[in-house]
């Protein structure tokens, strides 16, 4: 389980760790700015505690051989699905967030779907690895798809469409890297197009409003389109250098809904301008580039697929969150990694980084 030596640490990705640390510090500063008008440090303290716990998890995961996770993939998968079933029975959040996505255990509340992302990526990577020789056989592929999409179905029942889309994206990326044939990819695209009417008629009214507002940004700026409208005003007013940290008008006078969570990038754009936004994107680019580098040099397919899964997950979060804040994507309520407030989200993101570093420290050359 723990089999590191001094030579192993020569392969440790210090650039990735430093990049993630900078992202966490950046996030804490922006959360402080976003919540300054609330006159409380509780948001920053919660995020800081989650960050410290996350870095402790990174230490444990780096010392641990990631193959140990592969040996536990069945129990991990079962626990993940039990958590999602528990959400459907005991969960809450419909009134406030439109989906029953949260569980409460004593004083602690958390969003199981965030932890399940990690569990599913680990389990699916091992399941694909176990079936890699026959992956393109119809029966084997159907087994893999059923294994992958059962948790997605449970998430759709909450209903949390935005999170489900994240799952679909990283599942597709993992299958693609595993070598699924192009004909199956085209079948999936065709099936997705044919299912669009069914998806549309099963969306809630607020979800349809988000798509209408994306297509016509000035359709309902006083109600359902307010968040997107105020976000674009904030980013536009920041110009190149921003209004200054803690000096944003839209931010400090609470014009931006959910500014410390989903719309934290609007705070960055207003107060730190184009320079601050590009700096953040650069940090994300470095992080994802290091992920890809580790995936290419992973010891085996299992390690490689895990890292690809985490890469795709982070990429979708970053693209969708920044895009929806700027009006380039429909609003889905997907947070921005290491920046948005949320203890569960912060902790799970850092656990992902720990697993990637564990794969990287034991990497050898591998050809996809």
Which radius of gyration do the C-alpha atoms yield? 21 Å
How are helices and strands ordered from N to C? HHHHHEEHHHHHHHHHHH
Give the quaternary arrangement of the chains.
Answer: single chain
Outline: globular
Main beta-sheet annotation: 2 strands, antiparallel
* Largest sheet: spatial strand order: 1-2
Distance linking N and C termini: 26 Å
Q: What is the number of beta strands?
A: 2
Number of helices: 16
Mean pLDDT score: 90
Task: Report the helical percentage.
Answer: 55-70%
Strand residues, percent: under 5%
Would you identify the regions where 5 or more consecutive residues have pLDDT less than 50?
A: none
Structural class of the helices, strands and pairings? Answer: mainly alpha
